[in-house]
Amino acid sequence: MNRARRGADANPEGCGLRASPTQSSVLGPQSCEAVLFDLDGTLIDSVELIVRAFERATRTHLGAAPSRAAIVATIGRPLAVVLEELAPGRGAALLATYRAYVRAHHDALVRPFPGAAETLRELRARGYRLGIVTAKSRPQAELAFRLCALEPLVDVTICAEDTARHKPEPDPLLKAAATLGVAPAGCLYVGDSTHDLRAARAAGMRSAAAPWGGGAVEDLAALAPDLWLGALGDVLLHCSPRGSR
User: Fold this and answer.
1) Of 138, 152, 170, 216, which sits most exposed with the smallest number of CB within 10 A?
2) Cβ–Cβ < 8 Å for 29, 218
């Protein structure tokens, strides 16, 4: 199957697409106070685990699995909602099988993206407040927090249980900003899916596209994110130290 390019090669200009107009700008330290990150496909490389767990659950209970592209398109939304929409009345059984697969295979199939911890540490050293906003349930997210040692590096984590509405609605991002005591306009949200970019826009935050995750480059570029990153560490190019003038 042909898939959109990822990472440093996933430049929208290289795909014949218009790059974000501000992708080489620097966010002023007085205008940006906090950087929030999605988890799956942004800080951690977990797409393969998600796809395999989804396939196991749907083949077990429904006899067939959706296409890989259809599964990836659900990443960023709460899994319980996705599965219940897929098979009304059978979502709980699908979810139980999915989570059993994740528990058994998580550590073998998940790893942080290169530079994840280093980028978070450097942003903190530069004076930014940090958060992770994910649609995962907290028990599932904590598997990754433990494996990749990410939670001690941020100031807030928002999971599916923390808001009634979820991405692409702005509620989880607004909850993170409120917890940090930062106005939405002072936040940058980094994510790999269209759900992430739409949530950032709805929240009144700036957005940065992370094309190394699950989202198709064309779909991300169509939403005109404020920044286009080639790798996680590129966020440092746009976030100068908060003590600078």
Assistant:
1) 152
2) no
